[in-house]
Amino acid sequence: MPVTQLTNDSQPLAGLQLKDVLKTLPRECFVKNRRKAWSGVALSLGLVSLGYFALALAPWFLLPLAWLWTGTALTGLFVLAHDCGHRSFAQRRWVNDLVGHGLMLPLIYPFHAWRIRHNHHHRYTNQMDQDNAWQPLDPQTYASLPRWGQWGYQALRGPLWWLASAVHWGVLHFVWGQFTDPKERGQVRLSVLLVLGFALVAFPALYLTTGAWGVVKFWLVPWLGFHFWMSTFTLVHHTAVDIPFQPAGQWGELESQLSGTVHCSYPRWVEVFCHDINVHIPHHISTAIPSYNLRLADQSLTDNWGSHLKRRLFTGRLLWQIISRCHLYSPPTNYQTFAQFQRSQP
Predict the structure, then answer these.
(1) Sequence-ordered list of residues with C-beta below 8 angstroms from that of 131, at least 6 positions apart, any chain
(2) Is residue 228 within 8 Å of residue 162, measured between CB atoms?
(3) 285 located within any domain
(4) DSSP class of 130
């Protein structure tokens, strides 16, 4: 793929297509490197192992640090499975499927169910009624919910945002009948049965050897730590007062993929543990870019399209702005808060 160099990164996007941006990326961004891919697996497995070693030996007052380490390291396993789901980990599909399933088993996450739904998110990023990653409700839909549904939505868009990924996991990924394509339904059934079979062996063994507290200590809390990061990454990547969701007739692929996602910088140790998943804009330009090439692609996008990119620094203030303001999607201001919705009701 030839590389097109642009001299003005502020050129308008009108008349351009996603393929025009792709042409500006260096060819090296798309090259799979077996050594780097498997080094990433070794790194994450090593970090997870160290985390469980610390959990086994740490005194009670150091458990929070060990839980943070282990939950973040488990997120790294998911990111590598994420590469497998996009077929950017290995050349052969069966290798991607095998590694993806293996890395997701400790998380009790059905690989194919997640892969199919996640690719749908990439195809329809920020398109209302299609994007399934973190799509906000509009005021009319929210008003039609029963009271318990409104309470649940308020919690997951507010103080319990960190559980949203776990809810998404439990509600959407275990019912293979939701998938209408016969081939996909069979793949999802396989993934679900694999993780359920793993759970039926792993959890009784963990309980018999460590007791109920061992299940909480070694699996539940690290698993919740993983979902904290998954919820936070997804929320921050796709939610901001200046990021619009568009109906199908107004939706534009290039604008949504280039300017509709956020690059957020985290403490460097988090980025290392999680294989640069926060370098998110290149991943939406092309899912074929392996995680270890995201920074190379990001530099190219910055050089050529920098004025169209959204960048943030992860802080408590940023998170608070999102969970306190980005509640219900209501153009033209994009979002309204629950309080504003209540004041608008007769």
Answers:
(1) 121, 124, 125, 238, 245
(2) yes
(3) yes
(4) T
Q: Residue 150 class from Cβ within 10 Å (0-12 exposed, 13-18 middle, 19+ buried)?
A: middle
- Over the range 279-301, which residues count as b (16 or more CB within 10 Å of their CB) and which as e? bbbbbbbbbebbbbbbebbbebb
Number of domains in the chain: 1
Residue type, 53: F
**Count of CB atoms situated within 10 Å of the CB of 2:** 6
- Cβ–Cβ < 8 Å for 39, 284: no
Distance separating alpha carbons of residues 91 and 88, to the nearest angstrom: 7
Look at residue 248 and tell me if it is in a domain: yes
Structure confidence at residue 27 (pLDDT): 96
Closest CA to 274 of 122, 101, 48, 30: 48
Give the domain extent around 199: 32-136+149-315
The half-sphere exposure of 15 on its side-chain side, counting CA atoms within 13 A, is 2
13 inside domain: no
Beta bridge partners of 329: 335
Reference 189, options 198, 199, 179, 201; nearest CA is 179
pLDDT per residue over 9-57, tens digit each?
556 777 899 999 999 999 999 999 999 999 999 999 999 999 999 999 9
Closest CA to 335 of 135, 130, 145: 135
The answer as to whether 73 is a domain residue is: yes
